[in-house]
Design brief:
With about 400 residues, the protein is an alpha/beta fold. The chain has 2 domains: about 290 residues, Rossmann fold; about 90 residues, Immunoglobulin-like (Sandwich). The chain is built from 14 helices and 13 strands. The longest helix is centred in the middle third of the chain and has 40 residues.
């Protein structure tokens, strides 16, 4: 199952037009539990039922990381992040072109200034979505988000590097050449555009409010740059060809960039796209997309620490994305004291519907470990940590 964690104002409308052409909207399920709380059945039940019918290939929406635990199936996650201040300003100025913006009247009347809006805008929203329901108590939202991006997301794109991100994503998902025309772009008058430039300068004084999301954003940029460097000349050549294609397509798009995409139908490209599909640049991008990408980490962790008592740490763990048992590290106050495979029999896990029996673990702790020591169980070679089970024993 492909899962797009759609963070608002990060190019999601444009990306969803691409998804509609690659997969078809009839195979896309929109899941937004916070906005669907009054659904009957519940959003979670509705999603599981849709998945069980076998038509859903991609789940998207303003949801958090962790759907693999709900669906109990391997998930390939991806998302896009954006400069936090630019994301906040985009939301504010969107009120000038979107008539249904919840704050439109207050913004257009001047009752809600940019400064006041930024003071109320959440500075860790991107971190919260990417940390998701898997956050371990004691780990910050931003640190958990960075761990998930590194260990579990197939790709975290960056809006400011949209073309590069989309090309890398298309290769990993086996998509066709992902030509697109931007959509849902905020249309501003010259005067309004000047206000936005001034607001951008003013907003820099509030950067500290967004420190959590800036940590996530900078981590995503670093990961994307590492991928770009690793793929070398082949990616550089394909990206240059891709951007030449887009340049020709966008030059004729005109006012269409301001349209609002209707998520209920498959989007269509302008007729010029057919001619571009016969070009050398198109064939260059096609060849790159057919090449095999380097394996990306896709940990779909399930499990908990059951107990830390009488000198033993125990629990169960596995990843939905592999049938192999997980190698776990046990750390005490940050120092590795041992490792173990999660391959012991756990009939209770199998009977609870997970379909895994050999996933338990047990490790004797050094005798020097005191009752107040911080004991952590981490997937070896990664930074993803197991949570303590509700009601877990600790002595």
């Amino acid at each position: 199952m492909q899962v797009y964690i759609h963070i608002p104002k990060c190019g999601g409308s444009t990306l969803r037009t691409i998804i509609s052409r690659q997969i078809g909207v009839k195979h896309v399920y929109y899941y937004e539990p916070d906005g669907q709380k009054h659904m009957l059945p519940s959003p979670e039940v509705a999603l599981r039922r849709a998945f069980e019918r076998g038509q859903v290939r991609l789940v998207t929406g303003h949801h958090r990381f962790g759907i693999h635990r709900l669906l109990r199936t391997p998930c390939s996650y991806f998302s896009f992040v954006r400069d936090p201040i630019e994301r906040a300003l985009s939301e504010y100025f969107y009120a000038y072109s979107y008539p249904h913006h919840s704050l439109r009247d207050r913004i257009l009347s001047g009752a809600l200034t940019v400064g006041d809006f930024l003071d109320s805008f959440p500075g860790n929203a991107q971190a919260i979505q990417l940390a998701g329901d898997t956050r371990v108590p004691g780990i910050s939202w931003e640190d958990q988000a960075c761990i998930n991006m590194r260990d579990s997301l197939m790709l975290t794109g960056v809006s400011e590097s949209f073309d590069l991100s989309v090309l890398l994503l298309a290769r990993r998902l086996g998509w066709r050449v992902p030509l697109y025309v931007p959509t849902n772009v905020t249309k501003l008058s010259d005067e309004q555009a000047a206000w936005r430039r001034a607001a951008r300068m003013e907003a820099q004084g509030k950067r500290q409010r967004f420190s959590a999301d800036y940590q996530v954003y900078e981590s995503a940029k670093a990961q994307l740059e590492a991928l770009r460097v690793a793929e070398g000349a082949a990616l550089a050549e394909a990206l240059a060809a891709f951007q030449r294609l887009l340049g020709q397509l966008h030059a004729k798009s005109g006012e269409s960039i301001y349209r609002t995409y209707n998520f209920g139908r498959d989007d269509e490209l302008p007729p010029e796209a057919e001619e571009l599909a016969r070009s050398d640049d198109y064939r260059c991008v096609e060849a790159y997309l057919r090449s095999e990408p380097a394996a990306a980490p896709r940990l779909n962790l399930i499990g908990v620490v059951d107990a830390v008592k009488q000198g033993v740490v125990s629990g169960w763990a596995f990843s939905l994305s592999t049938a192999e048992p997980l190698l776990l590290e046990v750390r005490v106050d940050g120092i590795v004291v041992g490792n173990t495979l999660a391959n012991r029999p756990r009939l209770d896990v199998e009977s609870s519907g997970w379909g895994r029996t050999s996933c338990g673990f047990r490790l004797d702790l050094p005798q020097t470990v005191g009752p107040n020591a911080r004991v952590e169980v981490v997937v070896a070679g990664m930074q993803t940590q197991l949570r303590m089970a509700d009601g877990a024993s600790r002595a």
